[in-house]
């Protein structure tokens, strides 16, 4: 990724907005190695303050944060700096949220887990570049398992509530949760 530094341009400022601190620190270090100048923010309020004080040329914004929705920061950055390259990153990927993010100005939308190479490629992609297909796409079983895990976490690890939301028998859900994740 040595040539990435050449493509970044004259303003390497990058806003990283995520409430997952370990992930945020890892991504910040990785993006710094790739030539960016990252500024970390852990909440919508911190993100809006960073945009107001010094609108960055690049941003990676988590969709769901404890104090609100990351799309607020995307809108604020788009108003402050229309040419900014913004990637929305989320563990709760859905077509509706991807469309909403792109409509309000996000350059790209990535589902977690995404590594620094994915983020860099999305930030530096040309407008007419299509993303390459994934080398190792998730199996249907893995996608199903990931969805169940997300709903389970959204329900504060309550098996009965998760089963109700997934329209699944409670015992069936318990068996799925007891197994290892599929590949």
Automatic annotation (TrEMBL):
<feature type="modified residue" description="4-aspartylphosphate">
    <location>
        <position position="62"/>
    </location>
</feature>
<keyword id="KW-0902">Two-component regulatory system</keyword>
<dbReference type="GO" id="GO:0000156">
    <property type="term" value="F:phosphorelay response regulator activity"/>
</dbReference>
<dbReference type="Pfam" id="PF00072">
    <property type="entry name" value="Response_reg"/>
</dbReference>
<feature type="domain" description="Response regulatory">
    <location>
        <begin position="13"/>
        <end position="127"/>
    </location>
</feature>
<keyword id="KW-0010">Activator</keyword>
<keyword id="KW-0805">Transcription regulation</keyword>
<dbReference type="InterPro" id="IPR011006">
    <property type="entry name" value="CheY-like_superfamily"/>
</dbReference>
<dbReference type="GO" id="GO:0006355">
    <property type="term" value="P:regulation of DNA-templated transcription"/>
</dbReference>
<dbReference type="GO" id="GO:0000976">
    <property type="term" value="F:transcription cis-regulatory region binding"/>
</dbReference>
<protein>
    <recommendedName>
        <fullName>Photosynthetic apparatus regulatory protein RegA</fullName>
    </recommendedName>
</protein>
<comment type="function">
    <text>Member of the two-component regulatory system RegB/RegA. Involved in transactivating anaerobic expression of the photosynthetic apparatus. It is a transcriptional regulator that is responsible for activating expression of the puf, puh, and puc operons in response to a decrease in oxygen tension.</text>
</comment>
<dbReference type="InterPro" id="IPR047772">
    <property type="entry name" value="ActR_PrrA_rreg"/>
</dbReference>
<dbReference type="GO" id="GO:0005829">
    <property type="term" value="C:cytosol"/>
</dbReference>
<dbReference type="InterPro" id="IPR001789">
    <property type="entry name" value="Sig_transdc_resp-reg_receiver"/>
</dbReference>
<keyword id="KW-0597">Phosphoprotein</keyword>
<keyword id="KW-0804">Transcription</keyword>
<keyword id="KW-0238">DNA-binding</keyword>
<dbReference type="GO" id="GO:0032993">
    <property type="term" value="C:protein-DNA complex"/>
</dbReference>
<dbReference type="InterPro" id="IPR039420">
    <property type="entry name" value="WalR-like"/>
</dbReference>
């Amino acid at each position: 990724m040595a040539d990435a530094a050449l493509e970044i341009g004259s303003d390497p400022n990058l806003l990283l907005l995520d409430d997952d601190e370990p992930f945020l620190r890892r991504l910040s270090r990785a993006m710094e190695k790739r030539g960016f100048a990252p500024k970390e923010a852990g909440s919508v309020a911190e993100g809006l303050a960073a945009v107001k004080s010094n609108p960055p040329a690049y941003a990676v914004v988590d969709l769901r944060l404890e104090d609100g929705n990351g799309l607020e920061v995307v809108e604020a950055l788009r108003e402050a700096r229309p040419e900014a390259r913004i990637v929305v990153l989320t563990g709760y990927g859905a077509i509706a949220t991807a469309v909403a993010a792109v409509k309000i100005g996000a350059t790209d939308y990535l589902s977690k887990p995404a590594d620094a190479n994915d983020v860099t490629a999305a930030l530096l992609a040309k407008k007419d570049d299509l993303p390459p297909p994934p080398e190792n796409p998730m199996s249907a079983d893995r996608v199903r398992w990931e969805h169940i895990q997300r709903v389970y976490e959204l329900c504060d690890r309550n098996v009965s509530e998760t089963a109700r939301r997934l329209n699944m028998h409670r015992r069936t859900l318990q068996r799925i949760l007891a197994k290892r994740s599929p590949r």
